[in-house]
Write a structure and sequence with these properties.
The complex is a heterodimer of chains A (497) and B (102). Chain A has 497 residues and is mainly α. Chain A is built from 20 helices and no strands. Chain B is mainly alpha-helical. Classes of the chains: A mainly alpha (497), B mainly alpha (102).
Chain lengths: 497, 102
């Protein structure tokens, strides 16, 4: 029997998001001539309310009516809260001239709210069908956001590249999933885990155990390729620089943060539930694949970032390298690694959002449109606080002590060493050192080069708020990390390692 | 009765043709059609597995329905982006759309 109250308790935050999205769209019809600033307020308010509901109703009394395929646990809650906070920050960026000149801010905010809804489903999804639907839905939202400025030839080119790359690789992932379903006759991650468990491997297909390897491994590789594309992990990262550069800066910030979050939570759940290294027949192979992915990603991202002159492209390649560190957290498959992964993801998202907000402020009004690093020249003289906030973000991404980036990287490396991956740590440290070289280009431009232009900098209120919150949180997370780390450790309690 | 492996071979062949189309064609319309081939190959796989492996279960068929949903959404969006590209570039040949690089 469906009890409306308990349904509401379980899906409270999702319902709030859905209604806020509808409300924002409705408001667009009513208030259209009066301006658009209410959208951001509505979106942020809805997200805060949804987060509160998620915390208040965190443990459902009765999960019998929760549809199969959703696992409502601590990890789902943490993923939800991370997603809501990232998207609230992005909503602050949305109310700027740069991204929402064309159709409407309301539509943009509604898309952001729907993306939050998708993330909250994805956090709980423990079924291949739901994971696939949520990831592709997130992809579709990202494609729309990329092409939001439709009269801009670069934006449509970027969207085209993103769409073709993304949908091809998600079809590849689907093909892998279809084979996993074929050998195990289930799409549930727990069922898949039971099937791949050591010793009990017997397929519905008439295959011997040795032959089964030839089916399962390629299927896993195809599934992994699709997930790696969502993360923009090398060698599936080629779309990222072009998409970041062509997309409006706010959408680029979205692409830098939200699909990575979605891909990582799907990857974490898939790895820890279906193929944990400790108990699964193919767990070791999957772990080796992830190690290779992390190493290649860190090396390719760092080296390619060295060559960039455009700040958005530089952030794209550095984002590739950053994802390499985060994949280490999945490789280790320990509660330390998982907590460090989530912590680092939080710092990365805050720092990246802050820097993109600065990009909007600095390059939003430039004609002709340019996002070269040189546009940041002398920013220290034009807007000292903005330059300082960007500096904090960059130092956080480098992982300097006193910023959250240091704590995140430290615990990631500790987790890797604990589990016996010294070489992975060496590559990660080297990659962090190289990252100083390319982030230095921006710092040098801001503090040591002559002023690019004397035009006054226009900072909308919401944008200043976003920049401030990001910079302050990056520092606070570095100074007082323990509470947040302990909270993220809770996310791991429902997994067995 | 046709053995299961025939369906799987058909799906693999379709998937390969689709991949070839995506990599080799220059016209955007053909690329989007090749994308459809990929997803149809997946569907053949899913439905064949569900028909041959399970008695009375429908997971595979439901999965295939959701794949249709995704295929429809991506194609609709692909066509919309194609129109945007046509308006801004006056071409749908993918090798002429190359302003972003470096």
């Amino acid at each position: 029997m469906l009890d409306p109250i308990s349904v509401f308790r379980v899906f409270a935050s999702e319902l709030v998001l859905l209604f806020t999205a509808l409300l924002v769209l409705l408001g667009d019809l009513i208030f259209r001539p009066r301006g658009r600033h209410y959208c951001t307020g509505f979106a942020v308010g809805g997200l805060i309310l949804a987060s509160l509901f998620a915390i208040v109703f965190r443990v459902p009394d009765d999960t019998s009516f929760v549809p199969a395929g959703l696992t409502i646990d601590a990890f789902a809650l943490v993923a939800k809260l991370l997603g809501f906070s990232f998207i609230a920050m992005l909503a602050l960026l949305a109310d700027s001239d740069d991204c929402c000149r064309s159709p409407s801010t309301a539509l943009y905010c509604a898309l952001l709210l729907i993306a939050a809804l998708v993330i909250s489903i994805l956090g709980a999804a423990s079924d291949l069908i739901l994971i696939l639907l949520a990831l592709d839905f997130l992809g579709v939202i990202a494609y729309i956001m990329t092409s939001y400025d439709r009269v801009n030839p670069r934006a449509s080119e970027a969207a085209l590249k993103y769409l073709l790359y993304g949908s091809t690789l998600s079809a590849l992932m689907l093909f892998g999933f279809s084979w996993l379903y074929g050998v195990s006759t289930t799409t549930d991650l727990v069922g898949l885990g039971a099937f791949l468990d050591r010793g009990t491997t017997s397929s519905a297909l008439s295959l011997r155990a040795a032959e089964l390897d030839y089916v399962v491994l390629p299927a896993l590789i195809m599934a992994g390729a699709g997930l790696a594309m969502k993360l923009a992990a090398a060698p599936f990262h080629q779309w990222a620089p072009d998409t970041y550069q062509g997309a409006p800066a706010c959408s680029a910030a979205f692409i830098a943060v939200v699909p990575k979050l979605g891909g990582l939570i799907a990857l974490v759940r898939f790895t820890l539930v279906a193929i944990p290294a400790a108990s699964s027949e193919h767990g070791g192979d999957w772990q080796a694949l992830l190690v290779a992915l992390a190493v290649v990603t860190m090396i390719v991202g760092s080296l390619a970032a060295l060559l960039q002159q455009d700040i958005k492209r530089l952030l794209a390649y550095s984002g590739v390298a950053q994802v390499g560190y985060m994949v280490i957290g999945v490789v280790t498959q320990s509660s330390t690694g998982l907590a460090a992964l989530l912590f680092y993801l939080l710092v990365y998202a805050l720092a990246t959002t802050g820097i993109f907000a600065a990009i909007i402020a600095v390059t939003g009004k430039l004609t002709p449109v340019s996002t070269e690093i040189s546009t940041f020249s002398g920013l220290h003289k034009r807007a000292p606080w903005l330059a300082f906030a960007v500096l904090v973000g960059l130092l956080g991404l480098i992982g300097l002590p006193l910023t959250g980036g240091f704590i995140g990287k430290f615990w990631l490396f500790v987790a890797a060493l604990e589990k016996g991956f010294p070489w992975l740590t060496v590559v990660a440290v080297l990659s962090s050192i190289v990252s100083i070289a390319y982030y230095w280009k921006i710092i040098r431009a801001m503090y040591f080069l002559p002023v690019y232009t004397d035009a006054a900098l226009h900072m909308p209120t919401w944008l200043s708020v976003a920049v401030g919150i990001c910079a302050i949180l990056v520092i606070l997370l570095g100074l007082f990390p323990n509470g947040v780390l302990a909270f993220f450790r809770l996310a791991a309690i429902d997994f067995r390692f | 009765m046709v053995p299961l492996s025939w369906y799987l071979l058909l799906a693999a062949a379709l998937f390969s043709i689709g991949l070839y189309g995506i990599l080799a064609r220059r016209n955007l319309v053909m690329i989007l059609m090749s994308l459809e081939l990929l997803l149809n190959a997946v569907n053949i796989n899913l439905i064949a597995f569900s028909r041959y492996l399970e008695e009375g279960q429908t997971i595979g068929r439901v999965f295939a329905l959701f794949v249709y949903v995704i295929a429809a959404a991506e194609t609709a969006l692909g066509l919309a982006i194609m129109i945007a590209v046509w308006r801004t570039h006056q071409t749908v040949a993918v090798d002429e759309i190359d302003a972003l690089k470096g």
